[in-house]
Amino acid sequence: MQTHRRLHTVSLALALTGALLTTACGKSQQPPPGGPGGAPGAPAVTVVTVTPESVPVTTELPGRTTPYLVAELRPQVSGIVKARLFKEGGTVKAGEVLYQIDPATYQATFESARANLARAEANLDAARIKAERYAELVKIEAVSKQANDDAAAAMKQGQAEVAAARAALERARIDLAYTRVTSPISGRIGRSMVTPGALVTANQDDALATVQQLDPIHVDVTQSSVDLLRMKRDFESGAMRRTGGNGVPVQLVLEDGSVYGLEGRLAFSEVTVDPGTGSVTLRAVFPNPKGELLPGMYVRARLAQGTRDAVFLLPHAAVTHDPKGNASVMLVNAQSQVEARVIKVAQSVGGTWMVTEGLAAGDRVIVEGLQRIRPGAPVQAQDAAAPQPAATAPAKG
User: Fold this and answer.
1) How far apart (Å, rounded) are the C-alpha atoms in residues 340 and 12?
2) pTM for the full model?
3) Which three-class secondary structure state does DSSP give residue 200?
4) Which residue range is the domain that position 244 belongs to?
5) Nearest 5°: phi and psi at 59?
6) Which pLDDT score, from 0 to 100, does residue 306 have?
């Protein structure tokens, strides 16, 4: 009985040993992992092959809308406001009467000045006749030279009095006209700061109302002086070429994120840098026929400032930055190994980085699988544009 049990145990051990040997042989016959484009067992990564491009350089700057023209209405004469002749918030035209100041005293002053002019002209006529008569009589010694000189002097005095009276009349006429407060420009008028019956004084500090021309309208944006200097050097070195010969086009992004439907043009740039912010103010002009843009709105202006040639665009995921801000990428070299490369990034363009230095045409930049690699390690490169292989189901058994 013990012999039989010992034989059974030996047979079972031999069977287990044979099964293990069979399994080991089966495993050794399976092909090793790996595939084309890399060493066996190397991790797979997705790459993009870069080519140089010409990319428009667009800068987005913050700014605010300001009126094209602004006129603050102030009285030129003192008096009581008799009437307000406009609707608040409405549109007015240049020369339109907006306020009427009581003209009674100015009308009386005008009439008095006109009467003084008439009296001075009458006195001048009498003095001229006398001077002309004495000029003839003095030739035959009918009057003395002294009397002739006095007559000539009286005539000149009369001429001066007429000139003074005429100037006083003109001043009175101007003051009378100033009782009608008119708009110097066409545009939209705001609320009135006075009502009929209010006393106003000449050249007072407080404006009666404000008229603003809003079509076209200005957009004032600020740009760092450092960026302006860099852009100027790029133009001078040829790294960037200018576009928009008839003025730099500007696109406007409104507060709600929508894009304004009409394109504007850059009008000018300030010649002075703000010492407090280190920035320069740029002014653009936009058409505003429907009055959508109102003064004081916060906007963002996109300026097409030039075009960069021979640059490369990379997805944001492909570029890493160190704590100092230096950018780098991982490449797959000719030996299918990972290579780290330091690059220079100019700016973000949509969902990509614009790379100006560090890459060459044909470089394969890794965009996916960066977590599984290190410099010098072999990889299997899969082009991002190529279709991915179908996943195979695990074998049974």
Assistant:
1) 57
2) 0.64
3) strand
4) 58-67+214-307
5) -110, 130
6) 77
